[in-house]
């Protein structure tokens, strides 16, 4: 197997355990002691325990690979795993199914492997660069039902100004698109890859929010543009159809 195939197989195996643990915590969430990291950003026991599990498996299976996670840190390098143990923590805590576990491998600023799980929805998406997209272990072709129903999703990073978010949403609405906000980049990117929306746009997000989703969207056939550093809230991403890029690309 190639390095991409090996890492993709490992990531899927790791996710099988991580999604089970995350779902267990979801059903037990009322007992959590909640901490607020920053305004509108929360962390719970689930975030830390799921990330610890993923890191242990990475160490056991791929001991030479570096890792960087939202809760336990690490430094971005030329090649590393990027972990978001519970993306959409607020959704998770409120009891909605719109949250996910994200694991992506980044090489020289480009995501080459990505696995996302939505445990409550029973959906796992995985992709490796040049290998296509899979849903629940089977090859998946992005299929858009009723393409005349135009919908795009916009992120809601606490560090992205209200004015900036509004500018994107107004441009989309003026062009005839409905706008969804899921409060979770992992949901936004995965739903675009599945064909539920025409794309996902967010500024001032972090690498762990988009590392897996960007390669998943690319392998689904969407055009993906993202740029930034590995510092917190420095990534901007558009993963969308060409029509959506034409509307909001100039605003990036």
Low-confidence stretches: none
Mean pLDDT: 94
Structural class: alpha+beta
The CATH class of the largest domain is Alpha Beta
- The count of strands amounts to 14
How many individual domains?
A: 2
N/C terminus separation:
38 Å
What is the CATH topology classification name of the largest domain?
Answer: Fructose-1,6-Bisphosphatase, Chain A, domain 1
**Most strands sheet:** 7 strands, mixed
- Major sheet: arrangement of strands: 3-4-5-6-7-8-9
Number of helices: 7
SSE succession: HEEHEEHEEEEEEHEHEHEEH
Radius of gyration from CA coordinates: 17 Å
Helix content: 25-40%
Strand content: 25-35%
The CATH homologous superfamily of the largest domain is termed Fructose-1,6-Bisphosphatase, subunit A, domain 1
The CATH architecture assignment of the largest domain turns out to be 2-Layer Sandwich
Looking at the structure, what is the overall shape? globular
Task: Summarize the helices and strands and which ones pair or pack.
Elements: H1 3-27, E1 35-38, E2 41-43, H2 45-61, E3 67-69, E4 79-87, H3 89-94, E5 100-107, E6 110-118, E7 123-128, E8 132-135, E9 138-139, E10 151-154, H4 162-174, E11 178-180, H5 185-194, E12 199-205, H6 207-219, E13 223-227, E14 235-240, H7 242-248
Parallel strand pairs: 3-4, 10-11, 10-12
Antiparallel strand pairs: 1-2, 4-5, 5-6, 6-7, 7-8, 8-9, 12-14, 13-14
Helix pairs in contact: 1-2, 5-6
């Amino acid at each position: 197997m190639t390095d991409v195939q090996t890492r993709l197989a490992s990531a899927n195996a790791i996710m099988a355990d991580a999604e089970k643990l995350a779902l267990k915590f979801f059903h037990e969430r009322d007992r959590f002691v909640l901490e607020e990291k920053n305004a509108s950003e929360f962390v719970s026991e689930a975030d830390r325990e799921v990330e610890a599990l993923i890191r242990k498996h990475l160490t056991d299976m791929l001991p030479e690979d570096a890792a960087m996670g939202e809760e336990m840190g690490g430094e971005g390098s030329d090649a590393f795993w990027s972990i978001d143990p519970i993306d959409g923590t607020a959704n998770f805590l409120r009891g909605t199914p719109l949250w996910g576990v994200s694991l992506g491998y980044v090489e020289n600023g480009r995501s080459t492997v990505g696995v996302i799980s939505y445990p409550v929805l029973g959906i796992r998406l995985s992709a490796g660069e040049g290998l296509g997209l899979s849903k629940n272990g089977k090859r998946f072709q992005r299929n858009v039902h009723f393409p005349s129903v135009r919908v795009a999703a916009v992120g809601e990073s606490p560090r992205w100004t209200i004015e900036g978010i509004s500018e994107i949403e107004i441009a989309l609405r003026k062009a005839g698109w409905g706008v969804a906000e899921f409060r979770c980049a992992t949901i936004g990117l995965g739903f675009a890859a599945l064909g539920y929306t025409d794309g996902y746009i967010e500024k001032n997000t972090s690498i762990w929010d988009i590392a897996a989703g960007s390669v998943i969207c690319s392998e689904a056939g969407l055009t993906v543009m993202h740029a930034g550093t590995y510092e917190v809230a420095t990534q901007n991403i558009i993963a969308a159809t060409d029509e959506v890029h034409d509307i909001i690309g100039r605003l990036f």
